[in-house]
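INFO batch 0412 | record 1 of 1 | parsing
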Amino acid sequence: MIAEIKPGTGRGIMQAPPSKSMAHRLLIGSALAEGESVIEGISSSEDMKATLDCLAAIGAHCSMEGDKVTVRGANLQNIAEGTVLNCRESGSTLRFFVPLCLLGGGRVTLTGSPTLLSRPMGVYEEICKKQGLLFQPTAEGITVGGRLKSGSYKIKGNISSQFITGLLFVLPLMSQSSTIQLIPPIESCSYINLTIQALSQFGITVRWQDEKNLFVPGGQHYHPVHARVEGDYSNAAFFAALNLLGSEIAITGLNPDSLQGDKIYEKDFALLQKGTPTINISDCPDLGPILFALAAVKGGGVFTGTRRLKIKESDRAGAMAEELAKFGVAVTVHEDSVVVYPHNFHAPEKPLSGHNDHRIVMACAVLATVTGGIIEGAEASRKSLPDFFERLQKLGFEVICHDA
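INFO prediction complete | emitting tokens
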């Protein structure tokens, strides 16, 4: 899909999209509960479809009506031998489901796009090796088998928190208690706390013993819930960014007490307004593209903690550097930092590319509201926010979408 955006500003009130991070957690918790749960505020994004499909594959019964999903839990001891789970392009789905698949003992294969399957999975591979479990990666998928055990886990704190969340889903179900030791430096701690918060809604207890050790009591049971997904700060950030460019958009539905790490965008945007700041994004890597975009329009910026941007849907630092160059903006990408230089910002000299990455598409769209522009591969926005361009139109922006 090609999206053509005319320069302009927007006005209006917009309900924040539901939090994708919390939605994954609430749906999986519902599938582990002994009974029927109702989760409201579920979007029809590609990532949500991936998690719902995988829950159905492992035996949970899910029905969706509007934004409400009713889930009847499954006994994951009974996952059928040879079950295949299609995770599409959702990194959260893939990493959350590996431990779930290791509850039943039989062989289960997780598949997805080539980009997804190229993401690092060494944490689980090492755990399986130590416990004598099957972990067999191929170009077509990852096959796992055997039963995960309780015990003491030691995991590097600067890898994706998705591995830790995956373990936190299943360790409470073990007969014995477990501990997870995070080896400093610890990044994305906010996502771990988000998981602990979600689990508590199902009656599951996980405790921080100190700043780097988690204690997970065994013998616990998930209880069904009726819950609503809170608003998503990471996607709301793209619309809030428009206010720094002349728009007047009020965003509703965000929890001011949320544990979402991306809530920090409010402070980061203020820093970008004032000058050329240095901002660490190690705890909020999903904000990288929109922060780089705003820095391009404002006075530049230095961003540290960017190492993990290489292993997202695209190499996000490299992709944004390529797209910002079309606006005349110089960017240097280092191993763990990105510098966006002050510049003579101008309209893009050629069509923009979405790099098959929803956050790159949305960041480019924000810039195009200033200069105008054409985005190729704009359909990637459907991964997390299927109605992104419709939302822009409702706010008064002139957007024309058509097939390539």
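INFO post-check: The longest strand covers residues 105-111.
INFO record closed
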